[in-house]
Amino acid sequence: KKDIDKGTKDGIxxxxxxxxxxxxxxxxxxxxxxxxxxxxxLMNKLKEGVVVDDKKGIIKYINPGGAQLLGYTPEExxxxxxxxxxxxxxxxIINRESSKRxxxxxxxxEATLLTKDxxxxxxxxxxxxxxxxxGEFEGSLAVxxxxxxxxxxxKALFESEQKFRVIAESSMLGTLIVQxxxxxxxxxxxx
Length: 191
Hints:
Elements: H1 6-45, E1 49-54, E2 59-62, H2 64-69, H3 74-77, H4 91-101, E3 107-114, E4 120-131, E5 137-146, H5 148-170, E6 176-179, E7 182-186
Antiparallel strand pairs: 1-2, 1-5, 3-4, 4-5, 6-7
């Protein structure tokens, strides 16, 4: 049985240490790839819109769900200014809220966007500023959700309440509404 000299042992230990370092980096790289894949899957499956723009307002990223809500593909929107997607009626609020990003302020607000075929899409937008590693403002991240159906239901409810009020106010019969043991409404005929 031959003994390995100290220099050879040291050399083997160095090589084994290097191999272990490479294996650790491969493991870290593999874990990072898995995280990236999960992130991409999540972004691709979201039905809400996720948009990243630079400090000039140029779209750098939009997820497929967001592009689809607007009738586009992501490729059609990347490289264009987000302003082209905003209905004129919402320019003021969008400009006001977007200017907050440069001040480091996040906000949530309702606005109207335009689809590719120029139809209006009511949305709620949550925007937040993005910064580089050295703290420099780089742009914004915005998540938007279609609330068109909610707005339509609110409008229908309001119109229904208005019709009920007209009928109840002009009725010769007394009308009383009690909810949770509290009187909520009494028309003139009953009062």
